[in-house]
Fold this sequence. Notes:
Elements: E1 20-21, E2 27-31, E3 41-42, E4 49-50, E5 55-58, E6 67-68, E7 73-82, E8 88-96, H1 114-124, H2 136-140, E9 151-156, H3 165-188, E10 192-198, H4 202-211, E11 218-223, H5 232-240, E12 255-259, H6 260-272, E13 278-284, E14 292-297, H7 302-307, E15 317-320, E16 327-329, E17 342-346, H8 362-366, H9 373-381, H10 385-390, H11 401-405, H12 412-433
Parallel strand pairs: 1-14, 9-10, 9-12, 10-11, 13-17
Antiparallel strand pairs: 2-8, 3-5, 4-7, 5-6, 7-8, 13-14, 15-16, 15-17
Helix pairs in contact: 3-4, 3-6, 9-12
Amino acid sequence: MKLNSIKLPHFNSAADSRSTGIKTPDRVMISMAQHGGVPCTPIVSAGDTVKTGQLIGTSDAVLSAPIHSSVTGTVTEIRKVINVFGKLHDAVIIKTFPNRELADDIKPPEIGSREDFIAAVKKSGSVGLGGAGFPTHIKFSYDRETVHIDTLVVNGAECEPYITSDYRTFMEDGDKVADGIRRVMEYLDIKRAVIGIEADKPAAISRMTELTANDDDISVMSLPSVYPQGAEKVLIYNTTGRVVGKGKLPSSVGCLVMNCSTAAFISEYLKTGIPLIQRRVTIDGNIVNKPKNLLIPIGTLLGDIISLADVRVQPDRVLFGGPMMGTAVYELDTPLIKTINAVLLFSDTRKYEQTACIRCGRCVNACPMGLVPTDLEYAYDKRDAELLKKLNVELCMNCGACSYVCPAKRALSEKNQLSKLYLRELASKYTKRG
């Protein structure tokens, strides 16, 4: 079986740009919604002095991850803001001090067991750095009596155009990636690992092959440079041949998936105790003269990030993330969060007008999940919930391949996301009635 895919231009001009840090911004806005799951509640107040790495947000919910200050400074206010996904949440605004001072309690964690390791990963604030942002400790907390993981799949595909942050992680911190993989395998008792890297990144493949040459249980696999190679289910199939069924998790086929940057962070945290307070971010786009990769504190505002870019003209469109699955940002005061791996700046972006579907079937041939986007669009327009379920709209991963190939420029991927929201709203109404 071969999964459907498409070819995209790479535009990876920042691939050879070594990551550099930035001057601490005058203020940061640290969102309490940094991950998949339940947002945190601030545990600091206006007027408090906070240090770098200090815990400032937490939650009692299982599906959550703590949030730490990325700077040293004074909390000026805590207020409700609308995040990049259009949801209202708390944010801690901090006026920074010139000098960075680590929090007093930062030290490498003591690990003596699987439980210690999972607790440390939770305390670190680690989330999936590939974009989904699922709390890492939740992935690691599976019940070994009922769930049997034998393969760690490390995602280094980075299949969207422009983004090179994971590639630079391999090139600059490949030793940390390898060490993080070893630590996860050791403490979770996983027998083997496979690192999946697209074939258009031969230097990364060579580096990781060299760094794991003495690890018989770690292999590096060169994957076709197609989209969406980095999607979880696609990656699992292409590295192991296993198929994750409808409504199932990777654990159902004995796999645990982790992004390469997450592995590097875990290694660094175990050595230093410094939580997740910065991100490697690619700055690129059609108006950027010198694409680059920057190490940016979490909470840095979009306006400050744009000021660091060497641009020819001011952008008329800004994306957090890639052009296929990223989110358009409309406010300069939008802060960087843990899951953002790129800031893309564009001008003179083309605008398309939809025309009638010509039934060419290109969207069907592009969908890696084997869906029929044209029929899903019809079902959503008719608000036919049963047909949407029958057509398996929940399998849509929002990769955008269908919209990309559509000659009529139909908003197919967008309709799929609206369909899933529609079904969730219906389910919620039925639950409340019951």
